[in-house]
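Subject: mismatched residue count in predicted assembly?

I count 1063 residues in my input, but I want to confirm that the predicted structure covers every chain. Input:
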Amino acid sequence: MWKKRMQSAEEGGIRIPDSAKKHSGADGGNEVIVESVRKKARHQIVFTAVLFIVLFSVMSAYFCSYAIKNRRELFDNDYNKRDALLEEHNKRGRILSADGEELAYSDEDNNRFYPYSEEFCHVVGYSILGGSGLEEYMKYELLHSDIPFESKLECDKSERKYPGNDVTTTLNVRMQEIVYSALGDSRGAVIVTEPSTGKILAMVSKPDYDPNEIAILWEGLRKQEDGDAVLVNRVTQGLYPPGSTFKIVDSIEFLQEDPSRFTTFSFNCEDGIYENGDDSIHCFDYEHHHEQNLEQAFAHSCNSAFAKIVSEDLDLTRFRKTLKRLMFNEELPYDLPSSVSRSQLLEDDNISAHNLMQVAIGQGKTEVSPLHMNMITMAVANRGTLMRPYLVDNVCNAEGKLLRQYEGTEVADLMDEETADYVRRLMRGVTRVTYNADNGSDVWGTASEFNGTTAYTAFGKTGTAEFGEDEDEENSHAWFTGFAVGADKGEEGEPDLCITVLIENGGVGSDRAVPIAKIILDNWYGEY
Amino acid sequence: MNAYAVSLSKYVNTGILALFTLLAYLGLPMHQGRLRRAVEIIQRLLLVAFLVNANMTIAWLAKGAAARTLFLLCAMEILFMISFMVLYRIVHEMADMMFFNNICMLLSIGFVIISRIAYYGSMNSLEYRPGEPIKQFVMASFGMMFMLAIPFFRRFFDAMRHLGFIFGAVGIAALAGVLLLSAATNGAQITYTIAGFTFQPSEFVKILYIMMLAGMMSGEVSAPKTGFVTILAIAHVGILVLSRDLGSALIFFTVYLMMMFLATGKWKIITGGAALGIIGALAGYLLFDHVRVRVQIWQDPFSVIDGSGFQIAHSLFAISYGGLWGAGLTQGAPTKIPFVESDFIFAAITEEMGMIFAVVLLFLCINTFLRILILSAGYSNRFFQLFTYGAAVCYIFQTFLTVGGETKFIPLTGVTLPLVSYGGSSVLSTLIMFGLIEMIFILHDERTAWFKERYDQEHFGAGADGYAGVPGSGIYGGGSDNYAGAPGSTVELPENFPVNGVSEEGIFDSGDYPSGGISPGSGAFYQGQDLDGRR
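Triage response: the counts match. Full output below for your records.
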């Protein structure tokens, strides 16, 4: 029929295009498609369209949400150098203390100034040369400017850069200054936190440097010998054997296994020495502690008693679990760079009797950072619950409008409440003098300098971490970690502060670290 | 003040593209008529506005010679777009101009971002090296000339149906040639370098491949024929896998799968093909180190940021930096990504023009794809339909691969974003493919019109000649009314109205269908402005 039509058309004087002729079936074309097949083809084409529309929609949603969610993390990545781009047209924002004092600010040419010079050098850090501290951690906020559009217009008019956002920290200038001067010329680290929230009130590391001069000092600081390591924030990145402060950890495990041990435990430290097989451990200066309960052993920091506890009484499998829970051998829940503490017990599955005794008294290969020790102390002070330590309270735009407010967040329960309360009692014994009715003598805690303070009540544990072979003062670090309750709250009240002091090569904890801690707390609470 | 100009212009760019894309979608179901003409013209104005705005933003910060080069380039780009649009319209009246507009917009976005990437240094020390933008511009001009020329050869197209085997053989030979000739260097071996001019045969073989599949599957589908086609397809994919050109291999495989699906109409091909794809991917993962590396990069590019993860990590930096509205042209750092202008152009666009712009761009690509699919659905000629469909799938799947790879949605395969990415082979081959699509559309329209005319003459007798011969009068005149809506033209077509005739049923016909009924172009055809010299 089709051919017929075409013929008749040609006869009728209409020229048919060659292509049409060829197509119309003149060459036996098979293009005549049955209607049902065509309909089907449309189903398939619609399916293809829908398939790719869905695929593209999902892809768009994915990459947009990924990019928005990870914006800050990607910006902060060291390989991403886009902070330099922002610095070309934004003025870096200010870093403020909790009470609004400027800790760092910039002028129009993006020169950075640190009014407190050395006092905040490690925690605030510096912005150039790769950056460190809060300057590096908060650079996303500091370099972005969230002022309103009209304000940006005004900046354009007067050819000024857009001011970046201001970061308000949790740092307390008064506390930082007390700590800074209390530490004096000692090489070491101090951190003061608020255990109920996790706020970091002060963080000092020495030796220090003047961040205003960092560009000039840089080469010299980098070339320094290892021991100085001025740029290192010892609070978060220093690792030291915990010494006797590790007895807090021993006690947590000991009491967690069986709370009744608090009252039933008894140990006779006859010669100031504990022997297990061929190995032995002795108390500090071979002191004789005689018959004592747990409180007394803790207050005396009796090595023999704790060597016995760890060697004989503890379930090592459970102890390992507890160590993991206490964040040994893993990243600490802290936003800025921090070192990973290590415990020999976790690294050595078949630990020898000798090494186990070393574990008990925080010697050997066990290492912690002052921050980590402070976190464990915070958990004890806060009835077992660790609040994540944090430095940034809020972020505002340059006109003071609040953009982001940060609150304390719970990390985990590091121990149950009962254990925390018992450990708290143990730590109270360290800071006072008690009367032992059994033998009629006084028990002098290793931090009994705190005995009789009226403005506050202190709790704590001292530590003397030996390293190297010689038992020389130069070869041991002095520790104090503890917390304090203001007198207004009474002895059983909720602790206000948690403080950890470490003095490098400081000798005995009770001689060097405790006085510094006491100066800090006395000044803070106004104890004279 | 500089920064302010830059930050305002990014909103303008996004607005222009959003409006353009919106119009493209509104125009999708529009039939020829005054309204559609108006939409086309608005789109062209938007296109020019985009080119001016974006280029001026870049030029704003440039000084001296760099600014002059940019002004010149911008003027040339605008001239290029306008002249090709006008020329195309004059030469091929029946062409689908909204499809053409989309192509021009995609090219323009490419021009702008390649121009921006040609900037080196920071805001304080600008240096403009116009080598790549000019090269791209020249290649696009060549491509456009091809597009313009291809429809003139439409009368030969039907014969191509029978040359499937030859296309297959040529394609396999070309791909195998690359594999054999290329030195066994690391990574993908995918290019020929002839007289300093590097080109990528797989881009051109794609067209032959689709032609081969369309030709061989357009007749009656029989088992031996299907088997033969499958062997040819496997040969293509196999050589590409051996050349380590995984992106192209995936594209070839998918195109085969989807075209087979359309040709046979069997849904199990989709499920079976997907299963086969998964098995193939697993086998590739187990057999090849470089596949494992890519998967590893995909899962965590930051763990290998110093080595193989560098590109994708920097792509993610770029994408996240711009935010919703982008950093503004010249305000980001897309040049930190190696090969940004070819393989990571989408990341550069997202960084500087913003996520909203990027998503709208993706939907413009989808629009282009849908437009081709709609054309394909309207064809009753199986060869036409299969080729057009295959080209659509090839285009959109390649877009998916490159955007998905850059955004860590899927593992990176290193293919270009068609029309936007820098690269002569890519631009040229895409424009040739789109030229063929336009050609088929013109061919189809012309035949439809011819049969329509024949039919009318038979039914309305001499009168048909009468009204057709008077310009501007009657139902076909002026081109403003569509056929179906014209008074007294309720045409009842006979059952099984043959071949390329206008069909009554279906989703896209009589109104929906972009060329539904008789287009103004075909109206003009009646008025004696002949295409084949018939009148």
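Residues 8-16, 18-34 of chain A have pLDDT under 50 and may be disordered. Marking this ticket as 'not a bug'.
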